[in-house]
Specification:
mainly alpha; Peroxidase, domain 1; Peroxidase, domain 2; two-stranded antiparallel sheet; binds protoporphyrin IX containing FE; binds 2-acetamido-2-deoxy-beta-D-glucopyranose; lactoperoxidase activity; glycoprotein; metal ion binding; signal; iron
Amino acid sequence: MDTSMTLLLLLLSVVVSASGDKLFPQFYDRSCPKAQQIVKNVVQNAVAKETRMAASLLRLHFHDCFVKGCDGSLLLDNSSTIVSEKGSVPNRNSARGFEVIDRIKDALEKECPQTVSCADILALAARDSTVLAGGLGWEVPLGRRDSLGASIQGSNRGIPAPNNTLPTIITKFKLVGLDLVDLVALSGSHTIGNARCTSFRQRLYNQTGNGQADATLDASYAAQLRTRCPKSGGDNNLFFLDLVSPKTFDNYYFKNIVAGKGLLSSDQVLFTRSGATMALVRRYAENGAAFAKQFAVSMVKMGNISPLTGTKGEIRKNCRKVNS
Ligand code: HEM
Ligand SMILES: *[C@@H]1O[C@H](CO)[C@@H](O)[C@H](O)[C@H]1NC(C)=O
Ligand SMILES: *[C@@H]1O[C@H](CO)[C@@H](O)[C@H](O)[C@H]1NC(C)=O
Ligand SMILES: *[C@@H]1O[C@H](CO)[C@@H](O)[C@H](O)[C@H]1NC(C)=O
């Protein structure tokens, strides 16, 4: 083999592997040049109608990526062969925004049929939601394909619960390749959106089983929360995750935690249970720009959790079901 031939083969293999398994922002530039604009328009309309939708869409990407990777598995409905992740403990009566994803998919199917994956829609919608809420944007690597199945066990086991201990939460992040910096930065998502009473009630009444409220929770904030989150009933009453600026993507989430006003136990333990995470919380509380920058980096990292690429999986026509 002469050198030019070797070079050509080398180049070819580089091109093939580049298009085969690595995500990149220009993935749809030729196959669907308007893809990103279409996603943004639909997200913009949805958030204009309901501010909270930005938070709900951001969360969907997280709940997708932590279960079998960022593969759109979260979006599949129950069918004869699929037990939907929508019925898992973290998602049931909680995950929302699926109709917005349907609207995006419908618009994309009209523009370029079976080209843009549901998994990529989730990644783009998460970025657009962050920006619409006032946060810093980032370029979204693209080229994910959609799963042929779902895993309700994966959803129950892989997604951290609000009453998990810090070591458990750290382990669940580590299992998908995310470190302490990613954990603290990504938790900053709780600068927007809501949580139900049932997600933090235990902290208000019987945190450790001794009938006492969580001692790391500011007492007056706890009293305020108890008025709409009684000992029993009111499970679905909604509370802002960030009591100061609940609809703006800023660093008040971290300032609140420093003040003992993190809503979820999983929020507050970042400050009270480890020196390393405490230092990161302090840093982001003091430096909003440092948070915004790290959030973007960590979102890209989360978006890279074992995607399906090349010929794996499929491009769903309808995000709720596999193609027949
Ligand atoms: C660190 C572990 C995490 C835990 C334990 C956790 C837990 C929760 C819980 C319990 C809720 C409220 C659900 C409800 O009551 O209905 C919530 C809401 C939310 N979470 Fe997390 N979360 C974590 C990390 C993340 C990450 C990494 C993101 C995004 C990258 C995220 C984004 C959100 C958003 C935006 C909301 C509000 C959703 C809405 O208003 O619809 N969370 N989270
Ligand atoms: C899916 O079906 C299972 C049982 O077949 C049910 O328990 C679950 O609630 C359903 N999930 C949804 C999201 O409707
Ligand atoms: C955490 O909350 C879940 C759901 O409410 C509950 O089943 C579990 O017992 C709680 N775990 C701990 C350690 O309190
Ligand atoms: C607190 O929780 C513990 C353990 O779950 C239980 O034995 C106790 O009765 C509870 N106390 C109150 C006041 O609810």
